[in-house]
């Protein structure tokens, strides 16, 4: 028998029609929370990781094309963009030339299919909050479905738990806020529960390429598909070098006790060791959250572990209503899909350039993506055309929400092709044709300011 709080949570999940395996996975992490598990990974238990680079691998064209022909693409699409003030699928946000993330992803895949004569099934892992909007937006792409393969499967949901006693929270004002996704580590459970894993195998797919829908640099590259196929590895993650913008993010390391590669997220770093996390000379590589997974190896691992891979727990403390800091504090029991790297013997990492890692987590990132730092080709692949990626820091009190951000860039993003950094404090509105050169910092003024059309900042 489990605890009273666990039983109530499981009953709530059963009443919501959540699959038994997903309930068992939730119970596993609940018991870890009950036992006081924090998910922390101490610095003394790991060592820095080195890896090969995409620039050093050689894959012949035939191998690359053949590997791509048996690869399916999965996009993680469960996020609402709530941190930027959105209340629908973040991937519906307009990013380039009037096109959303979804538009560009669909067109990228269609172009790659034509170029390599590969089926490249495209599947979205949606959440219960993003499914309807996403599938409606994709209806315009009639050629996107492949055979009878569904274009989506749903991420599970789990109850938010009160910090005090781990009981499932009740929030009558908005019952949907009583639930949360269990992190993207849920992909493995959801693939099996939905039947998608088996359907992909039945369709002749041998591997999946998984990435975030807000990262337009993450395309199913044939060279990487060939490298992964030739390696014989069951699992691989693309890594990139950390920069000053990534000091608070997670990183790869090797566990001293067994030599396995692990992914340590920022929430798993001991409070007293945050300074070591920020040292880019110690842990140089971070995950792009772009994964290559052998489908048969995944099916075996899940069968051997009875559907529970046992990924490290991430104990995420938030408010039940993210928009109301006065609402009760809750724990969201989460896992990261990249953490599965420690489950698979022989798993690999490979260093890729920042051109394959262009995520949009904040409006700072959105400004860079919308600027002339990038071009969008006829094949809808994103190309960085500037020598460096500028560092952008916009005043969060003014620019954090998309609607406020858009009001202050009514004519689009300024030219950042010649910029190394842009820091904006206070309320500044940018008119048409503004150029930023080198390092620019705009200081907060007593009243809102405008940057006039044609201004060149930094000269």
How would you describe what is shown here?
This protein has 459 residues and is of the alpha/beta class. It folds into two domains: 4-356, Spore Coat Polysaccharide Biosynthesis Protein SpsA, Chain A; 363-457, UDP N-Acetylglucosamine Acyltransferase, domain 1, CATH 2.160.10.10. 26% of the residues lie in helices and 25% in strands. The protein contains 13 helices and 26 strands. The chain has helices spanning 4-15, 20-34, 61-69, 101-116, 131-138, 187-193, 196-202, 222-231, 274-278, 295-304, 363-370, 396-399, 402-408, and strands spanning 46-47, 52-53, 71-77, 94-96, 99-100, 122-126, 152-154, 158-159, 161-162, 179-180, 207-212, 235-241, 251-255, 261-264, 285-294, 314-319, 329-334, 348-351, 374-376, 382-384, 391-394, 415-424, 428-430, 435-442, 449-451, 456-457. An eight-stranded mixed β-sheet has the order 2-18-12-15-11-3-6-7, with helices on both faces. A four-stranded parallel β-sheet has the order 21-22-24-26. Strand 6, helix 5 (131-138) and strand 7 (152-154) form a beta-alpha-beta unit. Helix 1 (4-15) runs antiparallel to helix 2 and helix 3 crosses helix 8 (222-231). The mean pLDDT is 93.
């Amino acid at each position: 028998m489990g605890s009273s709080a666990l039983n109530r949570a499981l009953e709530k999940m059963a009443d919501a029609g959540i699959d038994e395996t997903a309930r068992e996975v939730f119970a596993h992490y609940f018991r870890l929370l009950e036992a006081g598990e924090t998910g922390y990974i101490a610095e003394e238990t790991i060592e820095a990781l080195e890896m090969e680079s995409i620039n050093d691998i050689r894959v012949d064209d035939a191998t690359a094309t053949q590997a791509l022909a048996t690869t399916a693409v999965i996009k993680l699409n469960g996020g609402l963009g709530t941190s930027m003030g959105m209340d629908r699928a973040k991937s519906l946000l307009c990013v380039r030339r009037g096109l959303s993330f979804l538009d560009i992803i669909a067109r990228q895949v269609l172009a790659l299919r034509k170029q390599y004569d590969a089926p490249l099934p495209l599947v979205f892992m949606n959440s219960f909050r993003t499914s309807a909007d996403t599938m409606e937006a994709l209806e315009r792409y009639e050629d996107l479905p492949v055979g009878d393969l569904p274009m989506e499967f749903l991420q599970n949901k789990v109850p938010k738990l009160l910090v005090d006693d781990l009981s499932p929270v009740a929030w009558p004002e908005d019952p949907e806020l009583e639930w949360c996704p269990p992190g993207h580590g849920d992909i493995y459970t959801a693939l099996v529960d939905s039947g998608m894993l088996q359907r992909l195998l039945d369709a002749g797919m041998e591997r999946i390429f998984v990435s975030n829908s807000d990262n337009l640099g993450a395309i199913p590259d044939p060279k990487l598909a060939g490298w992964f196929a030739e390696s014989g590895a069951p699992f691989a993650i693309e890594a990139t070098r950390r920069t000053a913008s990534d000091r608070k993010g997670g990183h790869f390391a090797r566990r001293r006790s067994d030599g396995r590669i692990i992914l340590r997220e920022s929430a798993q770093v001991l409070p007293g060791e945050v300074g070591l996390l920020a040292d880019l000379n110690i842990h140089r590589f971070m995950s792009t959250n772009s994964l290559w997974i052998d489908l048969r190896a995944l099916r075996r691992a899940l069968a051997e572990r009875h559907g529970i891979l046992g990924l490290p727990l991430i104990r995420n403390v938030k408010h039940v209503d993210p928009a109301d800091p006065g609402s009760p504090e809750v724990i969201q029991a989460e896992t990261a899909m990249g953490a599965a790297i420690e489950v698979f013997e022989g798993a690999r990492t490979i260093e890729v350039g920042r051109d394959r890692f262009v995520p949009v987590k904040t409006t700072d990132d959105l400004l860079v993506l919308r600027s002339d730092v990038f071009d969008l080709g006829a094949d809808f692949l994103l190309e960085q055309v500037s020598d460096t990626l500028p560092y952008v820091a916009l005043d969060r009190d003014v620019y954090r929400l998309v609607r406020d951000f858009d009001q202050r860039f009514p004519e689009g993003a300024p030219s950042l092709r010649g910029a190394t950094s842009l820091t904006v404090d206070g309320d500044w509105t940018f008119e048409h044709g503004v150029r930023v050169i080198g390092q620019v910092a705009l200081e907060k003024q007593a009243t809102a300011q405008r940057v006039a059309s044609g201004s060149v900042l930094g000269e």
